[in-house]
Amino acid sequence: MRPTSLLGGRYELGDVIGRGGMAVVHAGRDLRSGRRVAIKVLHRHLAKDPLFRSRFRREAQTMVGLCHPAIVCIFDTGTDVIEDGSHATVRVPFIVMEHVDGQTLRDVLRLGELTLASAVQYQLGVLSALEFSHSAGVVHCDIKPANVMITSEGAVKLVDFGIARASGDLAPMITQAQAVLGTPSYLSPEQALGETADISSDIYSAGCLLYELLTGRPPFVGDPISVAYQHVHEQPAPASTDVARLDAVLATALAKSRTDRFRSARAFSEALGSAAEGIVRGPRTAPAMSGHAEVAAVDC
C-alpha cells in the first residue's frame, strides 16, 4: 500500500519518478502554491527502524541549510501516518524538494556522447556544489553519477545527501548489512578502510567521477570487495586524455593519501579550469542538453 495521496494536508502525490533502497520519490504538487515538487518518502518498513528514521531526518536537516544553485533545494519536511497492515500505524517521514526536469550523469554516460568540454563543465558544476557544502561543514560522502543531475537547461544539481555528515563528526559511519554506506566504485580509500570521511574523501570521489566522465568507466571495476581493495592498494589505468595537465589533475584528486589530494573543492576546480583552458570556452557553466526525462534523486 502506498502512502496516502495527500501528505500533510498540502502535498498531492503523483507518479513514482524514482526508487532506491531507502526511499521512493513521487512527482507532486504543493496545493498552496501550485508549485511542482518532488516528494521523497522513506520506505514504510524502514520507517519502523530508528536508525533509518534518524538518517532520513539528518538528510532533511542537512539539505535545508544548503541553498545553492548547484544543489537541489528542500522546501519542507513532514510525517505521514499510515497503516502497516496489522491494525497499527507507522509514522513515515517525507521530504519535499525541488522538482528537477533533466537526467542524471549516469544516464548521460550511458548515452556515450559526452565530449571532453562537457565533461569538464559538469565536473566544475559538481565542484561548485561541494565547495559550498564543505564551507557549510557538510561532507556529501556519496558523490557518483547517479547523484548528479543535469537539468534541461544544462545546469548541474547535486542531490541525495542521505549519508552526508558534518565535517567534524567523528562518529562511525552508519552501516547497512555490515557494509559501509557509500558506492564502492566511488569510495575513497579511507572510507573503504572504515575510517572517518572528510572533505578529502569527497575530493577523491569527485576524482572518480571525473575519471568516468573522461573515460566512460569508473577507475576500478569488479565485485564490491575487489573494488574496495583496489581503491586502497592499486592505481587506475591512465585516463590518457592527451592533455597532460588534465591527467595530472586527475592523479592528484585520486591520490591514495588524503594529504596528497587537493586541499579543497575550490583548489580542485581552479586546477581543472586551468588545465582545461582552451578546451572549455565561455562561462564555466554546464552546457545545455537536447531532450530530457523526468527524474528525481533517491539513494542508489
UniProtKB/TrEMBL annotation:
Catalytic reaction(s) noted: L-seryl-[protein] + ATP = O-phospho-L-seryl-[protein] + ADP + H(+); L-threonyl-[protein] + ATP = O-phospho-L-threonyl-[protein] + ADP + H(+)
Gene Ontology molecular functions: ATP binding; protein serine/threonine kinase activity
Superkingdom to which the source organism belongs: Bacteria
Binding residues for ATP: 40
Keyword Lipoprotein: no
Coiled-coil features, chain-numbered ranges: none
Keywords: ATP-binding, Kinase, Nucleotide-binding, Serine/threonine-protein kinase, Transferase
SMART domains to which the protein is assigned, alphabetical: S_TKc
Protein's UniProt keywords contain Ribonucleoprotein: no
Enzyme class: transferase
GO biological process: negative regulation of fatty acid biosynthetic process
Alphabetized CDD domains for the sequence: STKc_PknB_like
Boundaries of every Protein kinase domain copy: 11-273
EC number(s) from the headed UniProt entry: 2.7.11.1
Name of the protein in its database record: non-specific serine/threonine protein kinase
Native species: Aeromicrobium yanjiei
